[in-house]
Structures
1.
Amino acid sequence: MSQFSTGELAKAAEVSVRTVQYYDQRGILTPSEVTEGGRRIYHESDLERLQVICFLRDLDFSLNQIQKLLQEENREQVLELLLTDQIESLEKSSKEIEVKLKRARHLQKATAKRRQLSLDDLSDISRLMENQKSWRHLQWRTFGSLVLFILLYVVGLLIVIYYFKDPRGLFIVCPAFVIVINLWVFHYVKQFEYLCPNCHKTFDPSFKEAFLASHTPRTRKLTCPHCHVKSYCLQLAKSQTK
């Protein structure tokens, strides 16, 4: 039967001597023998136990969890429960890391376009990234409703033309379409507020100003009512709690 000193056990398990000593102090890896001179002797079973501890530590199990597992008689069932819980925790952490990574890439892309950034600029970028999900959700929901309305309009138009065969129905359907489209545009425009890049304040422009302003997919050229500077302001989805 193989025997190991503390250093030999650490080398066999590819860990540091301090790790073995720490696990001994925590009571999860006690030596099989202790000589009269206080020398600690470990056996093959101790090496296997240390390898199991290291494996579980690599999976981010806490020492308390490992100690509980090693003390249980039904280790298989306890390990299954711990692994299920650990997998859920790691999946949650991976999603959080993915979100942070995405934000970091957005920030890197935004800062690459500017030579100098103030704290207000960074605050604007951070707010824009936090608003990204709400903005996209609002875009999809709004344009989805438009597509649905157009489909209903086309169906209504076909019914008037081919079923009733009365062209006078077009004088009702067409104006109704124009009215609803205008109401949709008004509703769409009022779903957003704008962040001024000059004074870093948000504002709600009039429908006429927002509708007629030149724009990109995420900005509109508006006059800020706070600093009175006309510039391309960032479009943000309004909070649903407002």
2.
Amino acid sequence: MNALKATTILVLHLGADHDIVFLVDNWYALRRKLPTLTLVSFASAGHGPHMQYQVAAARHIAAFTSA
């Protein structure tokens, strides 16, 4: 965990509010410990929100990588 706290690498997480594999609450808890984490949560989506919201996910990824 100390390595995560000290990283300067930007991290993007595309998540979903109905993901039963990687609960969004866990990512919010991790956000407090990982300062470079950017969270994007898709509403009414399950595991693999990039498959349900392909265009929106692509736009978030493009914006993140161009920053």
3.
Amino acid sequence: MKPTLGRIVHYRGKQGRLAMRPAIVTGTVDSVTPEGIACGDVPALDSDEHVHLWVFTPGASGGFPEFNVPLGEPREHQPGQEIPPGSWCWPPRVP
């Protein structure tokens, strides 16, 4: 499934406790303009599976941006099938 603006995803932190957090997609290859990249307003994306995110946190700041985040694939050798640090995935389906 292709990421689109406004979709909720899960993001695994790349620092600290590597916690999973909810995030919203704020930029995709279809929404980031060459003009915005050229003037430095927004970073480029490496592929159509990379996205810009707003990551929600329970702290006072409420969240933080992450840029050019790759889609993560679960690692079979880790407990809970976690995705690699600094990546996003779709939320699991609830039966």
